[in-house]
From TrEMBL:
TPR repeat locations: 47-80, 81-114, 115-148, 149-182, 183-216, 217-250, 289-322
Protein name: Tetratricopeptide repeat protein
Organism: Pseudanabaena yagii GIHE-NHR1
Leader sequence residues: none
UniProt KW keywords: TPR repeat
Tagged with keyword Signal: no
Domain Cytochrome c-type biogenesis protein H TPR stretches: 42-141
Length: 373
């Protein structure tokens, strides 16, 4: 998300993100309470001090302390939408999504022009997979701030997840119109066009991105993907290698190179490439998960189950509610006769699948559990 991201980026060419630190600066740093010569002057001064303290704690990643400080400020200034926006965002850091939604909705009721509150609200709805409400919140943020490229990309991503490619294309074109030099919007639009079968349109978008940023690793990977789809492997590999020259830890470039190495039977170097990418600074959780999942797959193909188990545990550390990973890990633990660990892991998978309403996953978890009981 990195502490916060508008929605996880597509694992291949989608590039869509909000930096948590940037959000801290824009949300927490934006709060400035006017000090009036009235009965509330002292309360306002005290609120300012709590905000300063909360901001410092937030930047030190003391989320609990920051929440407590912003709660104090909110008590002193209960009608300040900006304070509630910061508090709502902080609550998401502790996975208190119901509390975050309640707080952010209150912020939007107090100030229906608070674009940051709607943006944060959209993020929380995504976390609980309430995509319709997430889209509505992000669209409201766009209506308030036409330059909010992250919100455009959030809506586009969600529409793409729902396979509503026509509407996704529209929103990405709006993003490009709002900010013609934003490379990520061209990549996202190209990706959707490719999914919808318009390869010619996708090529045009990727080429446009290449004109704007010819040394951008994401662009080079996207172009490499186009070559790979046409079985022009040498050209594809050249693009991937160029991307790695720009950014040696680029997740998608390393995934692509690892695929080539894997096809050549060179599993060790493929895993090394993936691990290198996984150590990249500011890597998104979705990219890290994709890398670790591929590492696990390569270890399994080699018959090295212990390596795969470590990779699955890395995924769970990043995303503790990845039910599919608990299921895969549990099955591997069963094969190693680590019954107690396997049962606990599969029970977690069962619980998460049940919470998510995933009937197929729930059935698989229960079947795996039945086999060890």
């Amino acid at each position: 998300m990195p502490l916060f991201r508008s929605v996880s980026s597509h694992t291949k060419t989608f590039a869509y993100r909000i930096s948590n630190l940037a959000l801290i600066m824009t949300i927490a740093g934006a709060i400035a309470l006017p000090i009036n010569n009235n009965a509330h002057a002292q309360a306002q001064k005290d609120a300012v001090e709590w905000i300063k303290q909360g901001r410092q704690l937030w930047q030190r990643n003391d989320i609990s302390g920051a929440i407590a400080a912003y709660q104090q400020a909110a008590q002193l200034e209960p009608k300040n939408s900006k304070i509630l926006t910061s508090l709502g965002f902080l609550l998401t850091q502790q996975n208190n999504y119901s509390g975050a939604i309640s707080t952010l909705e209150r912020a939007t009721r107090l100030d229906n022009t608070n674009a940051k509150a709607f943006n944060a609200l959209g993020f929380v709805y995504v976390k609980i997979k309430d995509y319709p409400n997430a889209i509505n919140a992000y669209r409201r943020a766009i209506s308030l701030d036409r330059q909010n490229i992250d919100a455009y990309n959030s809506v586009g991503f969600l529409l793409t997840e729902q396979k509503n490619y026509a509407e996704a294309v529209k929103i990405y074109r709006q993003a490009i119109a709002a900010s013609p030099n934003e490379v990520k919007s061209y990549l996202n639009l190209g990706y959707v066009l490719k999914l919808s079968g318009d390869r010619k349109g996708a090529v045009a978008m990727y080429n446009q991105a290449d004109k704007i940023a010819p040394f951008d690793a994401d662009v080079l990977v996207a172009l490499g993907g186009l070559f790979a789809e046409q079985n022009q492997n040498e050209e594809a590999i050249a693009k991937y290698k160029r991307a790695l020259e720009v950014n040696p830890r680029h997740p998608q470039a390393n995934l692509a190179i690892a695929g080539v190495l894997q096809s050549q039977g060179n599993y060790a170097e493929a895993i090394t490439s993936l691990r290198r990418a996984a150590t990249a600074k500011n890597i998104t959780p979705s990219n890290l998960i994709a890398l670790q999942r591929e590492i696990a797959n390569l270890y399994i193909q080699q018959g090295s189950l212990s390596g795969a188990i470590v990779a699955y545990r890395e995924i769970i550390e990043v995303e503790p509610e990845e039910a599919e990973t608990y299921l895969a890990l549990g099955k591997l633990l069963v094969t190693q006769q680590r019954v107690t660990e396997a049962r606990k892991t599969l029970e977690t998978a069962e619980r998460l699948f049940n919470q998510q309403g995933n009937i197929d996953g729930l059935a698989q978890a229960r079947k795996a559990l039945a086999e060890i009981k």
